[in-house]
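quick one, 372 residues, struct below
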Amino acid sequence: MDSSSQYIDDSHISTNVSEIQQTGFSGGVGTIFIAVSLGIFILLTIIGNVFVIVAIWTEKNLKGLANRLILSLAVADLMVAILVMPLSAYNEVNQQVWAYGPELCMLWTSLDVLCCTSSILHLLAIAIDRYWAVTNIEYARSRSKQKIYLLIGGVWAGSSIISFAPVFGWKDPDFYRRLEIEGRCLVSQNVIYQVFATCTSFYIPLIFILLLYWNIFKQARKRIRSRPGAAAVLIEKNSNNPGSSTSPQSIEDQTEENRDNPQDHISENGVSSNQAGLGRLIVLAKREKKHAKETTEAKRVFIFCWLPFFVMALMMAICSSCEPDGIIFSILLWLGYTNSLVNPIIYTVFSPDFKNAFKRMLCGVHYSSQRH
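---
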């Protein structure tokens, strides 16, 4: 089809959009409340992810390769907050009536898919890294830069392919009609594209994330049962040194080293780890229960935020009569965005290193002097 016939006259679009705005747009208290609430939401998302980026960039003990994935995730979530959420918030205030033309709509929807897909795929990359660390002792002790950068590069490359596919061929035949008549800016509703995009952006990564964390859980349980004393003495050492901030992964690595060196199975007070008794095992059980809870909560939040939206997105494409009400669409969309707000909390707040870094950033010299 000739390209000139695809474009609707801009003035004609503006006229129809104006008519919709006159009937739908309201400057009342409800609109102000929505604008302020979404503004605060966006600001908190920006602050949380900026804190993560600055902490990893400035703190020496956070510069490990594993945290490069967290850094890249924070960048993706920051892009969601800066490039996607503001126009989406304006769209909500403007009763979901798009008033910026087809070109900006196409760019905005592509960036939306790019940033959100990248955020989701980073969670898969983090799960892969943790699985390798648990199942491969050598990988846990010395991560390969090539593997970490390959994971990050694969995430961004895959997200780019998914997001810009409509621009290079997977067109939505009703894209311009929808803008002209309804004033709605949506990502391509081509059925084949939606099936491809929803599966590769969410459903397939979700399945792999669940499988990977299930195997991580089984490996961790097997490791604890095989040599509980070695792990317990490490936790006792860490609890005797309040200033230390041993991560779950470092505990696992140290435990593996103690397996290879039986003479290290002696605690600092000279008591054999095999004679440590029930107390150490209780400490171990509590620590492992906490780590399992953190992982479970991370999966629950991810599923809670994104599953409703992707079910809706798939249904909208394959069932024309299944399109939800505008309010429901908005709620599910922003519920998905919530994952970018919560990610910095899930993947950093449980880490003592990140906690201390955030406190130093907030309290400055005063907090550092207190610690010393």
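The chain has a mean pLDDT of 76.
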